[in-house]
Design brief:
The chain has helices at 10-21, 33-42, 55-60, 76-88, 126-139, 172-178, 219-225, 243-254, 268-277, 291-296, 312-324, 343-346, 354-364, 444-451; strands spanning 2-6, 25-30, 46-49, 68-71, 94-98, 122-124, 145-149, 154-160, 184-191, 194-196, 209-215, 235-239, 260-265, 282-285, 304-307, 330-333, 350-352, 370-377, 382-388, 398-399, 409-416, 419-421, 428-429, 434-440. It has 458 residues and is an alpha/beta fold. The two termini are 19 Å apart.
């Protein structure tokens, strides 16, 4: 596949890394020559320095025979115009644009992106993705990472193995015997910085971080087995009342079991806007690092504090301060991946990486086969993929034990009709089934091949 990626910032670089590593023909375009040079020197990609919306620049990038263009520059308008030029001049069949401004995302204006207007096939909103990620973190406070699959029927959860975990040093094969009715699978383990797909004889040790796929109805039981308690969330303090904080607070107001939230926002105009938009949420104007203000917001009585300002350092320090004031669960929004190793020493329970959430959204629309959801794990080390099995796929009609999956691939769950099954060796994968797979990065091309249909299907 020939792909042009416009924008060589964090998101563009990460997507280029994914696609070039899978032997796609990738060209990166950016008006900053240094960013282009970084991409071409560290990745197997071609680079063009220039404005992505200029037709001659896209022509140099190979737009005449490109299969897809991903517009992820820092400017919404440049991304939109780039897609228009890609459509009108070069007839590129697939166009993805990252748009930040909420005005462009309002549902009543969705006609704007029709093919005869501003032809964008997929619009990605980082702030919406981050708000949804924050809500998922709040809904599963015992896990450091979480994502839903199969329309919410199963959950991916990242759990840290601690001293009080009852199943430490127990082979995974034995867990299946001990808890035979538990619909849960350990699909990934990170030990001493290395992520791997475990084998049945592997054990979990204190300090490991493991990823499990669990049926929604068995979630509470799975947490207890892994030594975790599910705290009930009733009060939340949100530091940062911009688009992300506002979106989270709005959702919490409308939730069925309403969580009481208080928002702290430093910028007066943003605070006033949030106060107007929110009906039952108290908005405090001031610095989220101010202990007096944190105390006024009741951070010591809160079940969680969510720090989502546009400054990583403020988010980290606010989270540390909230923890020191007595809040049991603190979550920070972190853009800079080099800050992530500091999370554990500082006592920050979970973090949200906007780059990772945006990359996951874009990958969902890139993967071959009937892929409906993709979640990127760690620093692009693995993906959890949900896909539909079609009749001419190589895996259709085979029992799981007979499918030649690579070593870095594990099946997490299978949906047949409206029933979720725990994967066992004898479970047969049929046409129309939905499967959830944990896939290490090196094995993604082979999994895509297994999910693709043959030419006879068309």
């Amino acid at each position: 596949m020939k792909v042009i990626i416009c924008g060589a910032g964090q998101v563009g670089w990460q997507i280029a890394r994914h696609l070039s590593g899978e032997k796609n023909d990738v060209t990166v375009v950016d008006n900053n020559p240094d960013l282009v040079r970084r991409a071409t020197e560290t990745l197997d990609v071609q680079g063009i320095a220039g404005f992505a919306s200029y037709p001659d620049i896209l022509d140099k990038a190979g737009a005449r025979d490109a299969d897809m263009i991903i517009a992820a520059t820092y400017s919404d308008e440049v991304n939109m115009v780039t897609c228009q030029v890609a459509h009108s001049v070069f007839a590129i069949p697939r166009k993805i644009a990252r748009l930040r401004s909420q005005s462009y995302l309002t549902a009543i204006y969705s006609d704007l992106y029709r093919r005869d207007h501003m032809p964008i096939d997929v619009v990605i909103s980082p702030e919406r993705e981050v708000a949804e990620a924050a809500l998922r973190r709040l809904s599963a406070p015992a896990s450091f990472d979480t994502e839903s699959f199969l329309d919410g029927r199963v959950q991916l959860m990242g759990l840290t193995i601690e001293d009080d975990c009852p199943i430490v040093n127990t082979p995974l094969r034995q867990l299946s015997d001990l808890f035979s009715t538990l619909r849960s699978v350990v699909v990934g383990v990170r030990r001493e910085g290395t992520l791997f797909a475990p084998e049945p004889g592997d054990q979990l040790f204190v300090g490991d971080s493991c990823y499990i796929v669990v049926d929604r109805d068995d979630q509470q039981r799975a947490l207890e087995i892994f030594g975790k308690s599910q705290r009930k969330q009733e009060r939340v303090v949100i530091v940062g009342g911009g688009n992300v904080g506002l979106a989270v607070a709005s959702h919490l107001e409308k939730a069925e079991n309403r969580i009481r939230a208080k928002v702290i926002e430093r910028n007066r105009s943003n605070a006033e806007l949030a106060a107007e938009e929110l009906e039952r949420t108290i908005v405090l104007h001031g610095d989220g690092l101010d202990t007096t203000l944190l105390s006024e917001a009741g951070v010591d009585r809160a079940d969680a504090t969510l720090c989502v300002t546009d400054d990583d350092k403020v988010n980290m320090l606010a989270a540390v301060r909230a923890k020191a004031e007595g809040c049991p669960m603190v979550i920070a929004l972190i853009n800079d991946p080099t800050m992530v190793p500091l999370m554990e020493p500082l006592g920050i329970d979970a973090y949200i990486n906007p780059r990772s959430t945006t990359v996951s959204s874009i990958l969902r629309h890139i993967r071959h086969g009937r892929v409906s959801s993709v979640y990127s794990i760690g620093d692009a080390e693995a993906e959890v993929i949900q896909a539909e099995v079609l009749s001419t796929s190589p895996i259709a009609g085979s029992a799981i034990r007979d499918i030649d999956f690579p070593e870095g691939v594990l099946v997490g769950a299978v949906l047949k009709g409206d029933k979720v099954f725990k994967p066992t060796g004898g479970l047969r994968i049929e046409d129309g089934d939905q499967i959830v797979l944990f896939v290490l990065a090196k094995d993604i091309p082979e999994v895509e091949r297994l999910l693709q249909v043959s030419i006879d299907f068309f």
